[in-house]
């Protein structure tokens, strides 16, 4: 790998010679060691090397951007020149800015140098565990990698930040198979820095395999009802991502289409719900330690006990909106645990749905959703009963937050998020006519 500091110094010199008003750049090298297991056998091993230099200039309140995957002198001059040229044709906007100077810091995150022998052992162990414990699961492939990143960030206010980061990634592609009966293709996975525990015990891997086996006895649901939907952790994560994008992200705040535009400090959800964005959480595997704007990342509450505390906006959109930028730009969501066990949540549902996933179009800015409930089970008289398919759900994301009836004590951490089960009332569940 190249001398990244020397490359950064060259970029800085070229930018300073251009005498720009403000500027920033990020230079990054990434090494990925990846292998694949198919049909219980290792089928591929490769090492990938990637590098990227991205430059942003702000001159006369005009923004220009360019990037390259080459670090030689000619490429550095060319990418800076391309960013300047881009700015010349842009529209001036006084909201463009960069973060003030941050104290220099070098961050060491995760596992920079991997234990590949143990990673192979854990992967083979996972294949054996699935074969022994779930004979009706057909594994298409297991993809495992270690990713390490060296990154340097600089801006013209004097900020110099550096990161050495590394983590293991695992994805399992599988389906249920029992003679002529099969399920749809499913995926599960984790990001981790810890190989001390078998993969099958991490994240939601074991439970998702169990649910897929149960789905071999799936039946279409008939009729329609309005009731309680208990969202599994992966479904909670999916819906909260939609909620952030629809109500609190850059585009909806900038275009003033968010229904939460004037709701900072107000109750937007049931008081049981607290959602934070926290890339530094011990259960999260996230390399972000500074934002693209040049602020050092900090954890923050998005919703605290039901009260909206912050939008998830960049410095530019915050300046346009007259608000504060988000303290980090990660999607490393951590939802605070509730006070009710999952089994008790289900026991209190007379008729409802235990829902593992959602397939539908991106919700509109009004929060209306309609789509197919995936990997789902009927709840009847306080018991999980029939695995069902051909089930549609419809509702409104904003109303769902207000209609939360329980948050579980149990949470699932897969490296990307920490999520409980959440029960929501007032959802329309529709089966076959």
Describe the structure.
Helices cover 22% and strands 40% of the residues. The protein contains 9 helices and 22 strands. The N and C termini lie far apart (61 Å). 39% of the residues are buried. The protein is of the alpha+beta class and 433 residues long. A hairpin with a 2-residue loop joins β12 and β13 (307-308). Strands 9, 10, 15, 16, 17, 18, 19, 20, 21 and 22 form a 10-stranded mixed beta sheet that branches. Strands 1, 2, 3, 4, 5, 6, 7 and 8 form an 8-stranded mixed beta sheet that branches.
How many domains? The number is 2
What share of the residues does DSSP label as strand, in percent?
Answer: 35-45%
Distance between the amino and carboxyl termini: 61 Å
Per DSSP E runs of 2 or more residues, the count of β-strands stands at 22
**Low-pLDDT residue spans:** none
Characterize the overall form: globular
Whole-angstrom Rg: 24 Å
